[in-house]
């Protein structure tokens, strides 16, 4: 263990002890992490959740709201002045405009504090005044989350895994061609290093657009102010026996370790390790549409990501002696409004099966986990249509980009998730007996009544699992 890692651990542990000792004398704070991979809907989820906690008319299954125990909810300045504020008002304006549009996705860490005045329940509830609970919502770019799995991998291990994935993914030819002309044991050359990194980054971008999930290192896709820096100028290389100190392999190994030390570890230390509750948003329908290999890739990516969550029971003593732990994790299959409600159980079952390995690990360590199908913003209405003599449950909405309405039936999801996961694990290129389609719907124009947030599917159930016991 390096000195920096040890110091980070000690600092975090001291902070956790201080938090635990002062907690009984301060307002309660819940830090909710919202994470997921690209296009899973993190920005829309946070915007709709906050809007529906401020105006709770659609939160019937969120018990503190349904029972009337939340007296007030209001936004406050966040406690961390060094983290960008989540642009809630701008995102809500996008979704509620006369011609609504989807807001821009997440490209950095952001935070928002929502404070709730809550009446205590129980026998003494009537004798006590309302208490304040602060909900700090932290939004992470899903691409950066992929990097957490790198902390336990050296350069040789990561390179071997990345190179093994190339044949199953699109647009790897340019990088593969350049790699074939490269001698990793040769002396380091900066222009050649930049060309390799550029080709590898282009491959990652194409793979992400094609529906693949595990596209690490994540900062290659969202570099921010690190764009063009040496810490982002490396690529996977074949193994070399005893490479020389100034070889390409050694320099890429050094930059990979620098990436973990200077980019990944601070992200984990400053943000990720402080989470109490976590929701993981997963675009299961998008992966199914992309094919068996994308489904298997998503399973691997989510298992790697969730292995970094440090889940467990977040009691006073566990926080005092072990540091903060995530004690509830919700796995949410998004875009449930793209399916008729009669197919929602199948979508939930597939999400549970897809994340089974990671979920079992979290359950074993003491965290409570649950999976459900949600739509943070409902964009469609349900109908029944007759097609070739069959009565089908369809959804109707406005097609993104086209502007016209269309009724959509994606195909029947299997009741047994193994019918999807088995060919995915076996490396099948296409689904043999089905063709699953996905439509992109635009947000529907909203007319909200007083005390109503945006329409959703099971957002209130998600809030109940994540926050209900704390309120």
TrEMBL record:
* Protein origin, superkingdom: Bacteria
Alphabetical list of Pfam families matching this protein: DUF463
InterPro entries named among the record's database cross-references:
YcjX-like
Which protein is depicted? Answer: YcjX-like protein
User: Could you tell me which species this protein originates from?
Assistant: Pseudooctadecabacter jejudonensis
């Amino acid at each position: 263990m390096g000195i920096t890692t040890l110091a980070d651990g000690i600092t975090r542990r001291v902070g956790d002890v201080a938090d635990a000792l002062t907690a009984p004398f301060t307002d309660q704070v819940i830090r909710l992490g919202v994470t997921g991979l690209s296009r899973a809907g993190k920005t829309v989820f946070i915007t709709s959740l906050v809007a529906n906690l401020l105006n709770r008319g659609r939160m019937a299954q969120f018990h503190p709201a349904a029972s009337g125990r939340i007296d007030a909810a209001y936004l406050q300045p966040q406690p961390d002045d060094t983290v960008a504020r989540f642009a809630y008002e701008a995102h809500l304006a996008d979704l509620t405009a006369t011609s609504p549009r989807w807001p821009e996705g997440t490209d950095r860490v952001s935070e928002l504090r929502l404070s709730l005045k809550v009446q205590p329940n129980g026998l003494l509830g009537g004798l006590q005044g309302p208490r304040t609970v602060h909900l700090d919502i932290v939004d992470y770019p899903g691409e950066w989350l992929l990097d957490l799995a790198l902390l336990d991998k050296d350069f040789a291990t990561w390179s071997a895994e990345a190179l093994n994935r190339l044949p199953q993914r699109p647009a790897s030819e340019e990088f593969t061609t350049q790699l074939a002309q490269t001698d990793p044991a040769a002396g380091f050359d900066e222009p050649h290093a930049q060309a390799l990194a550029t080709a590898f980054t282009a491959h990652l971008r194409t793979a992400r657009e094609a529906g693949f999930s595990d596209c690490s290192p994540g900062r290659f896709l969202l570099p921010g102010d690190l764009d063009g820096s040496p810490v982002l100028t490396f690529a996977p290389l074949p193994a070399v026996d005893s490479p020389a100190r100034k070889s390409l392999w050694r320099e890429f190994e050094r930059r990979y370790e620098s990436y973990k030390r200077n980019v990944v570890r601070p992200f984990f230390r400053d943000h990720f390790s402080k989470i109490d509750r976590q929701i993981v948003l997963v675009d299961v329908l998008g992966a199914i549409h992309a094919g068996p290999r994308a489904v298997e890739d998503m399973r691997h990516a989510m298992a790697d990501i969730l292995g970094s969550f440090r889940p467990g029971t977040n009691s006073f003593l566990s926080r005092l002696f072990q540091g903060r732990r995530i004690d509830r994790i919700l796995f949410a299959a998004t875009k449930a409004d793209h399916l008729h409600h009669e197919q929602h159980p199948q979508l939930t079952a597939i999400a549970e099966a897809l994340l089974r390995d990671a979920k079992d690990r979290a359950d074993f360590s003491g965290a409570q986990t649950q999976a459900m199908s949600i739509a943070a913003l409902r964009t469609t209405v349900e109908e029944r249509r007759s097609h070739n003599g069959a009565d089908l449950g369809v959804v109707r909405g406005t097609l993104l980009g086209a502007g016209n309405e269309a009724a959509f039936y994606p195909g029947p999801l299997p009741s047994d998730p193994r019918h999807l996961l088995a060919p995915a694990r076996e490396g099948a290129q296409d689904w043999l007996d089905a063709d699953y389609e996905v439509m992109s719907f635009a947000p529907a124009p909203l007319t909200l009544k007083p005390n109503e947030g945006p329409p959703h599917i099971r957002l209130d159930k998600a809030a109940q699992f994540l926050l209900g016991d704390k309120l």
